[in-house]
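Summary for the funding panel

The consortium committed to producing paired sequence-structure records for every protein in the target list. Below we show the first two records in order, beginning with the earlier of the two.
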Amino acid sequence: NAEYGERDNLISKNLSSSNSKNSERCFPLVCDFDPNLPPIGKIVNKNKFILDLDPLLKSVIKPSKVFVSYRGNKTIKETLVPSKLLEDRKSSNVVDNANATVHSSATENVNLPTSTEEGGCYHCNSRCKACRLYICESKTAQSYHSGYNVNIKGRLDCNTIGVCYLVRDKVCRRASVGSTVNNFKTRWQNHKSHIRKSVRSCEISCHFNDNQFHSLTKEPLKTFDNELSDQIEVIIFEKLDFSKC
């Protein structure tokens, strides 16, 4: 009885100090959206009568002001492709780390990255077909649409795992951004196969198969590669950070 009496006193005190604005306060039940969840809204509405059983509680929390709200989860694209490029490391930190390592006798013969190392998209040493025909070596990636330049951070090539890349159509002057959790060499093989076999799996294959300005000889493969490489170029411009996913 003492416990219930204390509860009633607290509610009465809250009522005396509340104004008309507080009486209209909403009480959302926020949940992360999941298609496998039960109908939480129906369950809450079905059991709102519990608030009516206590006049004091009902006067503080109006049943009509209690509702369910869902919070959206990140999509795969939002997870893999950050909306903003990662900030540059402060040059002072890079220099301090480099100097500290240089003075360490255990790592004297190791080639360390320094602030003077230039990032960019480069060809790999194996002279693969993706590098030889499609990848454009560059230190920046520029958009055809806005003219915006992105400085490439780190040394990236077709073997780098988990990257964002810019595909530029040199004929139509259009561009598309893609990403992959694998290396670019593997992803580009899929792009080429879908273009060649007219598989409408992505924006790139749809554009090349639907556009009358892109006439490609599908056979033999060597001819297809040569013709496609004359119309397209690729720049790998960012490595994805999966530690933040």
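The next record, for a separate protein in the list, is shown here:
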Amino acid sequence: MTSPGSDEVVVTFRQVDSSHEVDSDDDVIVTSGNVDLRGDDVTIGLFDVVKREFRCATAKIRSYEVARTTTTAEVPAMKRKLTHIQEMKRKVSISLELKNNGVEELQNSNYRTAIRLFHHSLLYLKGLDPDEGVEMEGGAGNLLRKMPAKLKEIKEKTEIEIYLNLAVCLMHKPKPPYEKIKEYSVRILSMKRDHVKALMRAGMACYHLHELELAQQYLYDARQHSTRHNDVIIEAEIRKYLEKVEDKRRKRRHQHS
């Protein structure tokens, strides 16, 4: 309110005891003017009033500063877990692209380039085994970095295709490394025990390694599971190698008789 005949601005309000350290958003803070502390009312002249807007602005600045100084260790564990899953997806995606490029080179009979691409593809899948259980420290306790079921399925399918195609590339060498072909086939069977092509190639490799009993077992299993696929070419190949195994075993029996 204003006094008659004067330009001075006058405000009358209740005096607050500072000893109680009252700090409310509704308190008026006087930053300038003459203050008369006599009596129950306080009369002041020109002044600046700082209210809620100042406090809100200050809170925003402080929140921003806290966000800028937050360390990695303070990031919530669930958010970090999500970051790990995104990284898994990225690596599987790159592996798929490299694998597809390798298949294209294989179809063009560029076996050396295809092998290089397949091995490169496998590198991106290493360490992504969901059963590995990489521990992460977090405020919510230790968590295990686990791969989602769907992503795990895609990863295993990609690995199977890579090992199958690596075996094909090796079989085109002048002297095929049958020990390696067998190894790749067994790796596939550790993920999918009834994989017909892996069983067949494991049997073929064992035949060339003179492991006839093991070769026969792999080929019998391949023949048993091949009936579900109705693939005439695969069935003919299995039958051919079973005959080879039986013929070689028969010759061995005659030699020892």
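Regarding this second record: DSSP finds eight helices and seven strands in the chain. Residues 1-16, 18-56, 132-142 have pLDDT under 50 and may be disordered.
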